[in-house]
Design goal:
By secondary structure, the protein is mostly helical. The protein folds into three domains: about 5-50; about 55-145, DNA polymerase, domain 1 (Orthogonal Bundle), CATH 1.10.150; about 165-345, Orthogonal Bundle (hpI Integrase, Chain A), CATH 1.10.443.10. The chain contains 14 helices and ten strands. It is flat and about 80 Å long. It starts with a strand and ends with a helix.
Length: about 375
């Protein structure tokens, strides 16, 4: 029985049941006892009559699919889908599903305010999944969507550079923490070790060996509770299991943070606001990063730019590709070279000044 208790606005304990029938989630509240809720659930399930095929409209289908989709994907994926629903999918005319033909779908795809071909392709993929769901759960076989295609884009594409922080950029970011050792330590470890955000969030005091001065990365924090695996899982790949030798000043900051916050071996070094036993939220880290960027006048960049910047810094210092790949936990240097190495603004200006000095002598 899917029966649960809750408290209303007056603090009174009541019961409700939730049941999924024909692809639609139903919730009924306000029962005084658990037994009453169970009996009502049985009666409701027995007497429920699904809507007729020709009575299922687009918005009804979209709501039903959203309820289903939320149960099958992680929170971040559903949140992105929810935004697409509000911005694009709800613009579809609210016809009955049997009346949605190809001209309707084609006109919808042409008029949605999607900023790029890539976004339109994502919306088209949503349509395909929704109509497939409709076929399975409602028995309505509408295949008009299969005729939809996204025209190829032959225009000249603009270059999208990967942002790479210089040392002065990171110094601004560090100073923007305003002496908060929690955030200073988080950004220092992420930058020095080139960690993914999930790996940073998954660090626990037991990962450190202060006698050897090392940090072991053999786990990452799950985005949400992952069943039997709990809050931590294995890193992204086998090569992501690695050990870092940390500088003395960073080890000292970590020890001070552990001591100040009374963190046990199995607590999280970067913990949630309400519990040391849970990792800091991914969105919380993003918000802090973007707030600092705004306060210290840094350009917008994602957390992963810290990892990319570390790779570029090591490359500039002359380390071999094999060493950099191993340091970041990549399978090969090709991955590092293709997705991580880039030039920061200071390096470009330095090259410009050198070339300017040389060419000026030639044309003078």
């Amino acid at each position: 029985m899917s029966v649960y208790k809750y408290k209303n606005a007056n603090g009174k304990t009541l019961w409700y049941f939730t049941v999924r029938l024909y692809g639609k989630q139903h919730v009924h509240r306000g029962f005084s006892t658990k037994k009453e809720a169970e009996l009502e659930e049985i009666a409701f399930s027995r007497d429920y009559v699904p809507p007729k095929k020709n009575q299922v409209t687009w918005l009804m289908l979209l709501k039903s699919y959203s309820d289903y989709y939320q149960q099958t994907v992680k929170n971040s994926s559903f949140y992105a889908f929810k935004l697409r629903c509000e911005k694009y999918l709800k613009l579809m005319p609210n016809y009955e599903i049997t009346d949605i033909d190809f001209p309707t779908l084609d006109q919808f795809m042409k008029t949605i305010p999607a900023p790029s071909r890539k976004v339109k392709q994502v919306v088209l993929n949503d349509l395909k999944r929704i109509f497939d769901y409709c076929d399975v759960f409602y028995g309505i076989h509408n295949v008009q969507y299969k005729r939809l295609v996204i025209p190829k884009d032959y225009s000249i594409r603009s270059i999208k550079e990967k942002y790479v922080l210089s040392i002065s950029d990171f110094k601004k970011l560090y100073k923007g923490c305003d002496g908060d050792s929690y955030w200073e330590t988080l950004f220092l470890i992420s930058f020095i070790c080139g960690l993914r955000i999930s790996e940073t969030r998954g660090i626990q005091p037991k990962c450190f060996d202060f006698q050897k001065g090392t940090l072991l990365i053999n786990q990452q924090a799950a985005f949400k509770y992952n069943g039997d695996k709990g809050l931590v899982t294995s890193p992204k790949t086998q090569t992501s299991n690695r050990t870092y030798v940390l500088p003395e000043f960073l080890l000292t900051k970590v020890q001070e943070l552990i001591k100040a916050k009374h963190l046990g071996p199995n607590c999280f070094l970067f913990y949630a606001a309400n519990s040391h036993a849970r990792p800091v939220g991914q969105i919380t880290v993003y918000r802090k990063l973007h707030k600092i960027q705004k306060n210290v006048n840094l350009p917008f960049f994602k957390f992963h730019a810290l990892r990319r910047s570390e790779a570029s810094l090591l490359n500039d210092k002359g380390l071999s590709g094999a060493i950099i790949s191993d340091y970041l936990g990549h399978n090969s240097f090709e991955t590092t070279k293709q997705y991580y190495l880039g030039d920061n603004q200071e390096k470009k200006e330095k090259v410009r000044d050198i070339l300017s000095g040389i060419v000026t002598k030639i044309v003078a």
